[in-house]
Hints:
The protein has 256 residues and is an alpha+beta fold. The protein has seven helices and nine strands. The strands form two sheets. It has a five-stranded antiparallel sheet with strand order 2-3-1-4-5, covered by helices on one side. The protein has a four-stranded antiparallel sheet with strand order 6-7-9-8, covered by helices on one side. A hairpin with a 2-residue loop joins strand 6 and strand 7 (197-200). It folds into two domains: 2-101, Alpha-Beta Plaits; 112-255, Trafficking protein particle complex subunit 3 (Muramoyl-pentapeptide Carboxypeptidase, domain 2), CATH 3.30.1380.
Amino acid sequence: MEVEFTVLSDRREGLLRELGNLIIQSGFSLLRQRMSILDGGVELWLRVTGREERLLELEERLGSHPMVLSFESEHQVASNSPSITPAPIRPRRVPHPMGRSLKDGICSTPAVGQVEAELPALAKEYPSIFPRLLSMRDKLPDGQKGASMEFAGRRVGVWVCKRDYPLRGRLDLGSALKQIALPALRNLLSADLKGHSLRIKNNPLCMPGSRCRNGDFFCGFLQGILQESGVEGQVTVREVYCRSDGAEDCIFEVAS
């Protein structure tokens, strides 16, 4: 099959080389590419070909790459019979938020290597992951703690959705919050849902009185699990109240 990707990034140097290697490692071949300069970043268009059964692997690698802010893809399944006109392309939007945007300018990127080294242990210890998360956060470079914890949360959220909800159908945001996100959170700690706001009680990542919000992991976790569940549009999550600032609980507001 052939697939077209439109990738947004805030970095131009090395982008094509990095994504070219990623495409090859995922079993695809790069056919054509085109790069356009935007305010504060670049848009890279790629056309690739490969086996359909490895497409999800390629999309997941793209979505978790630190140089990729977001991407969209259009799929075209190759036909065995020749045709004068090209086969119709089925549009499919696959946004992968990175917790940053082009308009915000360049900001810290996650320590991908350090986080990925911890992922097998997090999967093995799940749902008792908070001691390891706290230990990992302490070892991260100061300028990369927030982005790295969000990246870790997103990877864990995607993994949980694939493992625990493999037969999920297409859901709207409210249904996905109620049927997938809330039960997944309750496997980790006490949580409640009101509308599109999730209340997390006794968040061990945000200590009372510390005046240091550390909701990045849960922002990433909710983004990952909801986006993987098939919710339409780009899921955004922000912590609106935090017990480190004196609130009773941490509250996360979700939108799509």
